[in-house]
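Re: that chain you flagged

S.,

Sorry for the slow reply, it's been a week of failed gels. I finally had a moment to sit down with the sequence you sent. For the record, here it is as I used it:
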Amino acid sequence: MWIDFTYNHIFRNHFDSYWKKKIHSFIKDWYSMNPKIVSFTSGTTGSSKMIFLRKKYMYERALKTVEFLKLNRKKVTGLLCLPINSIGAKMFLIRAMIFKWKVFFVPPSSNPMVHIKNYFDIVSMTPMQVFYSIKKLQYVKILLIGGAPINKDLEKRLESIRTTDCYATYGMTETSGHIAIRKVNGWNKTLFYQPFNDISVDIDQKNCLKIRFLSNNKLFITNDIVQLVSKNMFIWIGRYDGIINSGGVKIIPEIVEKDLKFFIPNNKRFFLSSIPDHVLGEKLILVIESFPFSLKIPKSIFIGEKQFFYPKKIVFVPHFIENELGKIQKIKIVKKIINQIN
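Prediction finished late last night. Pasting the structure tokens below so you have them in one place:
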């Protein structure tokens, strides 16, 4: 049996039959005669949407990831700790089924490795899960990080990890998983995402990433603003649909957030957004997941053209709204903030 539900004491106390049923249901769907799998988009910019993915393309993407990581050998062990509704979990299971890995399972949580003492060849996690599991990475040989961008603080902490090869992955539900990977620690650490050899990348007039699948010439245009370093390398900058137009100045939140992170405690999640303003059109706000505390951001870091990047208002939210895949629902949070202001 390639997936292990007969756990030792480490897993048994934390096992949830709901997730076991979800996994069994997915396995049944994969082996069915239907050429497509039902999946859901991550809901980065709104509600999660149902789409249908062809098994053929999911199979191809699984092969490329395993080929890159050189895990197409026998006796590979993995840990599954992502929600099965996510594309990351689905693709993890597909790789395991194709290559007959032995996969252990723990129900998804922010700290999935808290009680684990087993060693694993591969684990896939979100950045938040990695943050809380940093002291347990000694038990992991290869770590795939996806679902959200890795902030600079977490990446800096991963640089000191010597026992684990840590990779930031680029992909989404619509691409059936990974199309590019970036090493974030070790001697071969890089700032650039390297697409797989069956992928060609380019940018459109908005500097958004265009992905072409060479196997079928299918073109997929994203809303991710990137810097194209070469024909086969790119740096992720931010989301085009997240751009804020404040007084005619276009602001990419992800760029400004890199400057702000030095003044916000590491354990506090935050993001930049905007609320309507009768003068500016959109007023830049900083939203922090926390009860109110004293925060001083020096205006000296926002000089010259950056003077318009200084948040006009700081809003504290006790708990961020998330969807079932753990994505922060920024639109819903901001709508709630606007309703409270009005």
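What I noticed first: The two ends are 57 Å apart (CA to CA).

Talk soon,
D.
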